[in-house]
Design brief:
Elements: E1 5-14, E2 19-25, E3 30-36, H1 40-51, E4 54-62, H2 69-77, E5 82-85, H3 90-96, H4 100-113, H5 126-157, H6 160-166, H7 171-178, H8 189-225, H9 227-231, H10 237-247, H11 257-263, E6 269-270, E7 279-280, H12 287-303, H13 305-316, H14 321-341, H15 352-358, H16 363-370, H17 374-382, H18 388-402
Parallel strand pairs: 1-4, 4-5
Antiparallel strand pairs: 1-2, 2-3, 6-7
Helix pairs in contact: 1-2, 5-8, 5-10, 7-8, 8-10, 10-12, 11-14, 12-13, 12-14, 16-17
Length: 403
């Protein structure tokens, strides 16, 4: 083993069962490579082995979001800087071949030469809880949609007695009726169809209950993780969870709003050549986060007066609706970046509901007065959706009534 180097850099090629590590010095000479297991004890051995060569400056790790997640957490916990490494490009692989040792060495060189600089997402806070719950939420939602389609298909091919009753109904009504079936022997196609519909309907109801439970949990976690983000116009629990997951538990790793916009695929990419100066649409980045920005833009175009005025002004300049939405997504990315990286004060609205109840007012009565849906009043009272203008007018009105 070569020892006594002042500064060394590590690289790790991660796999399901083993991690292959390499150490180079600060001029790029390969010092050694070794394979380790994927247990906590093996992670400790890996870090001790790397440090035995000298002062370990940083470690480049492939797959910090999958096979390398545990190792990245361990290295960060023991005070070692970790940078995320993408797989080597194909040109390099054609030139030097590919195996685990070569990939580990390439990861170390990427960490040395500055090609790899991204800090991995933290996975030890509320956002990690949101991420894993959202996996279950999306799975349940997708499964329920599939069950609804299967019920529809059964209705289309059902005997006339069932089809005539169920075809005019929507999915919730079909589920409600089918769940109460008491079918007879399944040797009869009619009774077999009723049995199948009852089974699917009860599965649909169970999934609906699971979805509501997970949605409530995500609602509470996103509010606790970043109340200012949840208070932004057009941001609900689903959109907030997507954006929080995109940024991770350590959003400070994102250096600027431009970097965040690029990460979300909401920044134009320069495509100039010679005398041609132009930009093209960014089709990369985190597409879920891009979708979240799109949803915010659509909500604001429909409900926010300032956004409507902006869209009208850009249309007068000759912009299409798609181009306006692209511009809005870039502006929204800048706003979201600020909400993710800086603590913002969120007005306390917890006194509104007690004041309304003391005045003997229902949600419907307040909603009728302000010409909005009761859900908007409820959201303002609970602090799950920020509407400063409505909150101010609502508070002023309650004070006048109490005076």
């Amino acid at each position: 083993m070569v020892e006594g180097h002042d500064v060394v850099i590590g690289g790790v090629d991660t796999h399901k069962d083993t991690h292959v590590a390499a150490v180079i010095d600060r001029v790029g000479r390969l010092l050694d490579t070794r394979s380790f297991g994927i247990t906590a004890g093996e992670y400790a051995r890996l870090s001790v082995w790397m440090r035995s060569f000298g002062s370990l400056e940083r470690v480049g790790v492939e797959g910090t979001g999958s096979y390398g997640a545990g190792l990245a957490r361990h290295l960060a916990a023991v005070g070692i800087e970790v940078v995320e490494v993408n797989r080597p490009n194909r040109q390099m692989r054609r030139r030097s071949g590919k195996n685990d040792t070569i990939d580990a060495e390439a990861a170390a060189r990427a960490a040395l030469n500055g090609q790899a600089t991204a800090t991995p997402k933290g996975r030890d806070g509320l956002v990690e809880s949101i991420r894993v719950l959202r996996i279950a939420f999306r799975s349940a939602r997708s499964s329920r949609a599939s069950v609804g389609v299967q019920i529809r298909d059964l209705v289309l091919t059902a005997p006339d007695e069932l089809r005539s009753v169920f075809e005019p109904l929507d999915t919730p009504a079909r589920v409600e009726r089918a769940a109460r079936f008491r079918p007879g022997p399944v040797t009869d196609p009619l009774e077999a169809t009723r049995t199948a519909m009852r089974s699917l309907a009860r599965r649909y109801l169970a999934l609906s209950s699971e979805i509501e439970q997970l949605r409530d949990q995500l609602d509470g976690l996103t509010l606790a993780a970043n109340p200012a983000l949840r208070a932004a116009k057009g941001v609900g629990a689903d959109v907030a969870s997507i954006l929080l997951i995109a940024a991770g538990d350590n959003p400070e790793r994102i250096r600027s709003d431009a970097a965040f916009a690029a990460m979300c695929g909401a920044s134009p990419i320069e495509a100039s050549s010679g005398r041609t100066v132009r930009h093209r649409l960014n089709q990369g980045g985190n597409r879920q986060a891009n979708h979240a920005l799109w949803r915010i833009a659509l909500v604001r175009l429909a409900t926010d007066p300032a956004t409507k005025d902006y869209a009208q002004r850009r249309r007068a300049e000759g912009k299409t609706t798609k181009e306006i939405i692209r511009c809005l997504k870039r502006y929204i990315a800048r706003e979201v970046f600020g909400l993710l990286t800086k603590q913002r004060h969120v007005p306390d609205t917890s006194d509104l509901r007690p004041a309304r109840l003391a005045a003997g007012l229902t949600l419907q009565a307040v909603a009728d007065h302000f010409n909005v849906w009761p859900a908007r009043i409820s959201e303002v009272e609970r602090g799950v959706a920020r509407n400063d203008d409505l909150e101010r007018r609502y508070r002023t009105w309650l004070h006048r009534r109490a005076a």
